[in-house]
Amino acid sequence: MSLRKAAVITAGSWGTGLASVLADNDFAVTLYTRTQAQADEINDSRRNGKYTGDFVLSERITATASMEEALSGAGVVLFVSPSHAMRQVARQARPYVLASATVIHATKGFEPETMKRMTTVLAEELPHLDPSRLVVLSGPSHAEEVVQRRPTTVVVAADCLEAAEQAQDVLINPYFRVYTNPDVIGVEVGGALKNIIALGAGLSDGLGFGDNAKAALLTRGLAEIARLGASMGGHALTFSGLAGVGDLVVTCTSQHSRNWRAGYLLGQGRPLDEVLETMGMVVEGVKTTKTAYALSKQYEVSMPITEQLHEVLFAGKEPQQAVGHLMGRGRTHENEELADAFGGKWIL
């Protein structure tokens, strides 16, 4: 029996994790990589060493450096490119993506130059597709645990419920549970903004502030995510779900998180350029902080944590000074600013 074909673009840690899920779900998976050396490593040794270590990949996964080969005949296409590269990658993929394919992205960030969400970028670069059927996947999910088949729960969202349910059917299995959600904006915004708070959580840990500070950071960080997300058109309930508080918790409390690790190094006094070089992988939270700061001004939304992280990352502000600024803010009601974002309605 011939297997259904899926393409995963590109072959980073999360792309490899999702390729493993699809392979376990009886797909023949073609994993696109930008380098022939990485493709050879995956095909010859069954490993993607830089991203998933010594984990042995399924025989159903084949890697290629040819976009045409990766997408040829693929009924499922999963984009997992870094946010800053999504437009270029989608443009390269455009001639080969079938109009009938189920197209999903699992990238948590905004396009830096335009501040656009990833479904908007994909809709612009893949105009032969119905934009209502573009699906976003998000939620608390470390690739390291997914490739080890540890229980993981995520959410998929699309404007078209049928498309979200198709993605759910493609991905769900005994260790990878998938919920559907109609709120594309909320799921994308929540997935992107939690990386900012994870940077802050790592920075707090690097400064040795302890659990009290981190708990407050997560709680007030969630309020910031909800305020901006609602102003952009997201639904309040989304931010209390998997793409909101769920993803926030896992990203802010685990050393698997590259955003937490980057923040931790910053908290220990390492300069940003050195931190990014040390990480060796994309740290989405850095670019997202700049975008979210600009969006907060555009939508006139109060985001004090984001503002102070922006100062630390891009204006040379000392982390201790940023914390002092946050702790010394004027008195306010816990829900006051959040309620403003929802037309005065108390939601938390």
The biggest beta sheet reads: 8 strands, mixed
CATH superfamily of the largest domain: NAD(P)-binding Rossmann-like Domain
- Lateral strand order in the biggest sheet: 3-2-1-4-5-6-7-8
Q: Provide the helix percentage.
A: 40-55%
Describe the structure.
This protein is α/β, with parallel strands linked by helices and 348 residues long. It has 2 domains: 4-182, Rossmann fold (3-Layer(aba) Sandwich); 185-341, N-(1-d-carboxylethyl)-l-norvaline Dehydrogenase, domain 2, CATH 1.10.1040. The protein has 17 helices and 8 strands. It has helices at 13-24, 36-45, 49-52, 67-71, 86-93, 118-125, 143-146, 161-171, 184-206, 211-231, 242-253, 258-267, 272-279, 284-298, 304-314, 319-327, 336-341; strands at 4-9, 27-32, 61-64, 76-79, 102-105, 135-138, 152-157, 176-181. An 8-stranded mixed beta sheet has the order 3-2-1-4-5-6-7-8, sandwiched between helices. Strand 7, helix 8 (161-171) and strand 8 (176-181) form a beta-alpha-beta unit. Helix 5 packs parallel to helix 6 (118-125), helix 9 (184-206) packs parallel to helix 12 (258-267) and helix 9 crosses helix 14. The protein is globular and about 65 Å long. It comes from Paenibacillus hodogayensis. The active site is at 194 (proton acceptor). InterPro entries: 6-PGluconate_DH-like_C_sf (IPR008927), 6PGD_dom2 (IPR013328), G3P_DH_NAD-dep (IPR006168), G3P_DH_NAD-dep_C (IPR006109), G3P_DH_NAD-dep_N (IPR011128), NAD(P)-bd_dom_sf (IPR036291). Sn-glycerol 3-phosphate binds at residues 108, 139, 141, 194, 247, 257-259.
